Structure formats: structure tokens, C-alpha cells
Amino acid sequence: MTDNGVLKVAMPKGRIYKQASKLFRQAGLLIPEEFDESRRLIIPVPEANMEFIMAKPVDVPTYVEYGVADIGIVGKDVLMEENKDVYELLDLGIARCRMSVIGLPDWKPVINPRVATKYASVASQYFREQGQQVEVIKLNGSIELAPLIGLADRIVDMVETGQTLKENGLVEMETLFQVTSRLIANRVSYRLKNTAIQELCDRLGVAIAARV
Ligand code: PRP
After folding, report:
1. Overall average pLDDT of the 22-28 stretch
2. What is the pLDDT of residue 5?
3. Could you tell me the strand order of the sheet in which 71-75 lies?
4. How far apart are CA 7 and CA 32, in angstroms?
5. 2 lines ligand 1 (CB under 6 A)
6. Is the CB of 178 under 6 A from ligand 1?
7. Residue-range domains of the chain with CATH
8. pTM for the complete prediction?
9. Where does the ATP phosphoribosyltransferase catalytic domain start and stop, copy by copy (predicted)?
10. Pocket of ligand 1, candidates 17, 58, 160: which has the most ligand atoms within 8 Å of its Cβ, to mutate?
11. Which end of the chain, N or C, is surrounded by fewer C-beta atoms within 10 Å?
12. pLDDT at 2 exceeding the cut of 50
């Protein structure tokens, strides 16, 4: 791990980035706007003594666990699924949604039902805890298709506005947990760059409190 004092931040590309960069700006950090729509993967943020590593959201915990990023921003959904060895420092309160069991309104229990999901580990654990035997089928997106075309009886997926469910005639059956984005840290970086990380946490904490 190189340590030139610059804090390396694994940022999730896409919609969480928009909310995260807004929060960073509200915390008083000078995040250059020129990169908001950019395809650049490493973004220098010299005014904040940071460097953003633009990662696929699901990979953020991996970059942080290996220490190539000191800290990262990631949804609780990914954190639960990936189960990496990182510190969870702060609930940023952004990208709020929930992890739910979803199905068709006329769904009826069957023996050994199939459950499609991007979150195979989360779903397996949930149904195991419920004492239900299910076959989990891992998909990578458009999970709502699965019950519509008969691949699975139910799905475990994220619900934000509920629009996707509504437009596809699906209903939420149970909520597993609420999801927001979290600030995570590499265990070694947390010690070596503690002052910088703590200062960032304090600034973000103030910005989060000011939002409510
Ligand atoms: C996510 C999620 C749902 C949808 C929920 O999918 O998997 O499909 O958003 O949002 P809503 O409640 O506001 O409709 P995403 O757009 O990330 O694409 P994906 O289907 O490829 O996972």
C-alpha cells in the first residue's frame, strides 16, 4: 500500500456516486464537477487530498479489503452479500431502499421453491433462518423477470420507489432489512491514516445531521 498521504476512496460508479459526491460537497470537500459525467476511472481530488477509484459498486468492498483503497462507499446490500473484512464506519443515509422478498400476488407456497436473486448469500441465509428450504438461482440483473416468466417462484431484490414492482404486477411480501450506503475502511488504513479518516467522518457526520 503506497502512503503519500492521499486518501484513496473507492467510489461506486452510477447513481450512488451522484448522491455520494453531493454529500461530500455538502461536507465542504471540493469535488471537481468536471468528472461527474466522466468515464475516467481514477479521479484526482487534490483539494481534498483524495483520489477517487471509480469501481463497480459490488467490487468496492474488495478494493477496500485489499487496501488498494483506504476507504469506500458501498450499499448495505453489497456489504451484507460480500461479507468482506472491512470496518463499517458510518451510515451515510443516502441511496435509501430495502431488501425484500417479492412475488406475484397469487403466489402459493410450493415444496422446495426457487428464489432468484443477485444476493445469493443474503437470500440463502434468510430462508435458512426462516426454516424454509429453497433453491436459490443467481441472476445478475432484471431480477423481476424471473417470476414473470416462470424461472422462480419468488425473488429477493431491492425496492426503492416500488415502480419496477408496480409496472410488472409484482408485490412485496417481506422486508429483510433497510439499505443505505455506508462508509467503510481498510483495517490497516484506518490505523495509518486515522487522522484523515476521522476528520472525513466528522465532516460527513455534520453534513448528514444537517440534512435531516
Ligand atoms: C434495481 C433493483 C430493482 C429496482 C428497484 O435495479 O434491482 O429492479 O432497481 O427500484 P424501484 O423500486 O425504484 O423501481 P437496477 O435498476 O439497479 O437494475 P438491475 O435490474 O439490472 O439490477
Report:
1. 96
2. 87
3. 42-45, 50-55, 7-12, 71-75, 181-185, 87-91
4. 16
5. no
6. no
7. 7-95+180-211 (3.40.190.10), 97-178 (3.40.190.10)
8. 0.94
9. 56-204
10. 160
11. C
12. no
